[in-house]
Write the structure tokens for this entry.
Amino acid sequence: MKFFCDPKTLMHSISIVQKAVSSKSTLPILKGIYLEAFDKNLRLVGTDMEIGIDHIMGANIIEEGSIVVDARLFSEIIRRLPDSEVEVSLQNNNQLLIKCASTEFNILSYNSSEFPELPEIEEEQTHEISQELFKSMIRQTVFATAQDEARPILTGVLMEIEDDTLNMVALDGYRVALRKGKIEAHLNNKVVIPGKTLNEVNRIIGGEEDEKVQISLTNNHALFTVGNTKLISRLLEGEFINYKQILPKEFKSRIKVNAKHLLDSIERASLLGKEGRNNLVKFIITDENMIINSNSELGNVHEEIKIELEGEDLQIAFNSKYFIDALKVIDDETVYLEFTTNLSPGIIKPITNDNTIYLVLPVRLASY
């Protein structure tokens, strides 16, 4: 194997596949990147057996072949090379020669036959969605996945395809994030994608409105194709919670409020809430005003913002983190807050559409 390429292009490609490389595996081969030189292309693959990333870049191929090289070491070498064409060639005894200007490295590599093959996924039934839209949908849901492994299914995001609509849902037992978007679909489907997978897809996506992400699903795996990059992931097994039963169908109090003003006020109130009980903030809602209070042993804070209230006055308390997380990813300038009672879940959603809904469980006022 022997090829020439631009070191910056190679470094960019390494950074894409390196996200899937295992850093904790006891198998040295899984800490490596698979390199394959063929035609006018260099293929790079990384996998931890849960996620696999396959990326193709252009290169000047002198001799075809394949090898596996330690990902961390290879990345550090390429990152520090001079800004000049790099030559990579396989020598005797699995030594990989890396030459660039007056710099030369010889490093140990592994036999490529020992590298695990990525699962084969049929791409005949492929769904397509705008890169820009899918990136936005990931950003607006994945933050609400559970961070502990007590209920593994909740560490993922439900992807529910119904006709030409994709519903993405994340919940962790205290909140629900729902985002709907249009997708070009061939059949209905329902799978749970690990949150880690979607975070990696989000990093790969450029976000161009006219470019598409291709999504292929099987019973066990999902394949996301973005340009010259393929990401394959295992699906999470188990039954996802029926989120439709959780969402309230009516409200007794609806507030219209500026999203940024609300976010700023809650963030200030949370400065003291963090020192108290569970980041607790209390909303006192009356007519045209909403008072936001937070108390701790260090003191208290009082915030007041203008609102438009439809329905009944209310006093209700929440963990400020859950409100802050939701408000940060809503793109609308103005939002609705909908409440039923001080013990019922609260809803946050933009006023311009019903494509985005956030549910947050309240905290009992008696413990305030």
